[in-house]
Amino acid sequence: LTIYPGSSGSSSISASTNYPYSLSLSCSAPSGLSCNFVGDILYISVGSHTSPGTYTVTVTATDTTTGNSASTSVSVSVPSESISVSASPSSLTIYPGSSGSSSISASTNYGYSLSLSCSNLPSGWSCNFNPSTISSGSSSTLYINVPSGTTAGSYTINVIATDTVTGRSSSSTI
Fold first, then answer.
1. What is the pLDDT of residue 114?
2. CA atoms within 13 A on the CB side of 157
3. What's the whole-model pTM score?
4. How far is residue 51's CA from residue 154's CA, in Å, rounded to a whole number?
5. Spatial contact of 80 and 57, defined as CB atoms under 8 Å apart
6. Which is nearest to 174 in space by CA: 124, 114, 116, 134?
7. In terms of Cα–Cα distance, which of 155, 102, 103 is closest to 124?
8. End-to-end alpha-carbon separation of the chain, Å?
9. CB–CB of 85/172 below 8 Å?
10. In this model, does residue 55 exceed pLDDT 90?
11. Which of 13, 58, 129, 167 has a CA-to-CA distance to 101 between 20 and 30 Å?
12. Residue 141, Cβ neighbours under 10 Å: how many?
């Protein structure tokens, strides 16, 4: 199963015995994952801060009369997250005492919403996004306000997109 952090997946488990007794199903999962059964459906949840990698969930079928059991494993792949963020235009000319804007697009292969922010702003500058949280693959308008009295020159501002579920982020510059 491939499961993204902060979500879950399921698998149907079949178990049988040559005895005429019932079987109970149980599971155990490593740290960062949890599992449970509803009937013969195994549900596996991956924590929002679980690191990418391959994990093994152990499934055990136990004969309710004899106590005999057998186990198997289910492999869970947690893929790496890829977040992209870009600005258009990626260069602005803003006069002191005024503001400029740029369209910011961001996406993640996890499909979660992304929160947008700025860093590396010179003293007195401000940035605002409308909206400040977007769906993956959407865009927002960034407004940068430059106070009067700002010295002429080139300034680099970081635009950061942060996954609202995993907390992972990526940045671009403008």
1. 98
2. 29
3. 0.83
4. 38
5. no
6. 116
7. 155
8. 39
9. yes
10. yes
11. 167
12. 12
pLDDT band at 146; cut points 50, 70, 90: very high
- Alpha carbons 29 and 47: distance in angstroms, whole number: 12
Specify whether the CB–CB gap between 60 and 70 falls below 8 A.
yes
Considering only CA atoms, which of 154, 62, 174, 36 is closest in space to residue 45?
Answer: 36
- The pLDDT of residue 20 is above 90: no
The one-letter amino acid code at 93 reads T
> What average pLDDT does this structure show over 132-156?
96
3-state secondary structure of 58: strand
Compute the distance between CA of residue 146 and CA of residue 1 in angstroms, rounded to an integer. Answer: 50
The answer to whether the CB of 58 falls within 8 A of the CB of 73 is: yes
Cα angle 51-52-53, degrees, rounded to a multiple of 5: 115
Per-residue pLDDT at 161: 98
Arithmetic mean of pLDDT, 7-30:
94
DSSP-assigned beta bridge partners for residue 72: 59
